[in-house]
Amino acid sequence: MSNPAIVWFRQDLRLSNNPALAAALDKHERVIPVFVHEQADTAAWQHGAASCWWLHHSLKALSSSLRKLGSQLIIRSGSDSQSLLDELIAQTKATHVYWNRLYEPRHIERDKSIKQALRDRGLEVCSFNGNLLFEPWQISKNDGGPFRVFTPFWKACVKSGLPGHPDDAPENMPAVSSRVKSARLESLGLLPKIRWDLNFSDQWQPGETGAHQRLDTFLDHAVARYQDDRNRPDIDGTSMMSAHLHFGEISPQQIIEKTNQAIDINKQQGIVANAESFVREIGWREFAYHLLYHFPHTVDRPLYEHFEDFPWKKNYSANLRAWQQGQTGIPLVDAGMRQLWHTGWMHNRVRMIVASLLTKNLLIPWQQGTRWFWDTLVDADLASNTLGWQWTAGCGADAAPYFRIFNPVTQAQKFDPCGAYIRQWIPEIAALPDKYLSQPWAAPAALLDDHNIKLGNDYPAPIVDLKATRERALERYQTIKKS
Ligand SMILES: Cc1cc2nc3c(=O)[nH]c(=O)nc-3n(C[C@H](O)[C@H](O)[C@H](O)COP(=O)(O)OP(=O)(O)OC[C@H]3O[C@@H](n4cnc5c(N)ncnc54)[C@H](O)[C@@H]3O)c2cc1C
Description:
Layout lengths: L4 E5 L9 H9 L3 E8 L10 H20 L5 E5 L2 H12 L3 E5 L4 H16 L3 E5 L21 H11 L39 H4 L4 H14 L4 H4 L12 H5 L5 H14 L5 H24 L22 H8 L6 H13 L4 H14 L4 H11 L5 H12 L14 H8 L4 H6 L8 H4 L7 H6 L15 H17 L1
Helix pairs in contact: 5-11, 7-10, 10-11, 11-16, 13-14, 14-16, 15-16
Bound molecules: flavin-adenine dinucleotide.
């Protein structure tokens, strides 16, 4: 019998439309599915706590799916992937290693070095695109350079033809020899010791099945109104696919294919434009990876150099803590930050609003925001998080202009018109009439008394004056513009 091939699962925790797995199964009688958990504590951008929770459950789901097909997920854990793979190769006499590519700068470096080392020893290494519609180097401007503006980028993608017809999952897989030992998933220590994650299981079903169920629900019930509802945090109007996509439990091709099928089945008026707008958001994810690949320094430095000199505040720890804990006294911001803490997710519009408050009204460096999101989001994704923060701070590609400073009061009035979102997350002020819900400080003292609400006691007084800090942010911006 020929030597086995290793399929190294990373951010592609699915069996269907998985090019590395399909290629290995096509060519080899024996295939060993492996997940390697690198416990390099010091490396930057290790999974944050919420992502670890997701990863645990996603691996559990993958492991169970593999078992149903007759295979087994082999888990190895240690300080570096190279030596863990080497050990496994020595034990199994594998001659081939397959994986789907990653695009985070440190993963690119690591994978290059592993590929070279394995090839030097005579192994065959095959890597594939399993996570994006296009490789970041396949789409370029006419002059060959990378795009920095979304619309022409997406036009170029659409013109190239969005890839479709994703493969199904294999129907069965070869068994893995019992001599190949696996670490127990629980031993990876991905679940938190203090159980802050108790609400997460009600909200999420990590894994391939959960991803498809979530997408089907969205396509059945929400896609037809996506353009309007996607901005409403009080409505379940978006797909909530981001963590499923991040961990590769579903591919963007599969999402597009199913969205096209939904259009074909349900030709009701308006669905086409709404579905296209949804697919365009998948395009923003592609754009984020395009930027990350071409401008890897942007994970912690602004794309545009002049922003390096931005006069951020120096002493901000108390305000940062208030922001993190949903205690700024600005209800829409606090609602978002509490939603994030309790569910590991925050609505996109609210992400922009909380990021705007942090970087503009509070003048706290955007990197502090990326790090908090990194630790608390189940969908924490280096490409999309970097793009989202730089976009809001005004220092990245196709960014909101710096002078666009979200007003959390008018945003709440527009996008949470009945206050359902604020009432859900800020019960302390839920009794206030809609008019004052987004700005309790403006409520007459007698009204607050009537409802037994004491600002600064039951709920914080605002930590900033929105109008004055807006002016201050614009003045600071002028200083870098001049320089
Ligand atoms: C400050 C900030 C930080 C962010 N951090 C992340 C992050 O760490 N991980 C992450 O996946 N997204 C991030 N986003 C983008 C966006 O908020 C989320 O992708 C979206 O809210 C996920 O919800 P959904 O799946 O219901 O989105 P939908 O509206 O249903 O969109 C479908 C998919 O398109 C992609 N998408 C949508 N909007 C964006 C966008 N603006 N940028 C990139 N991709 C997008 C996502 O993969 C999403 O799942 C961030 C945005 C901001 C403003």
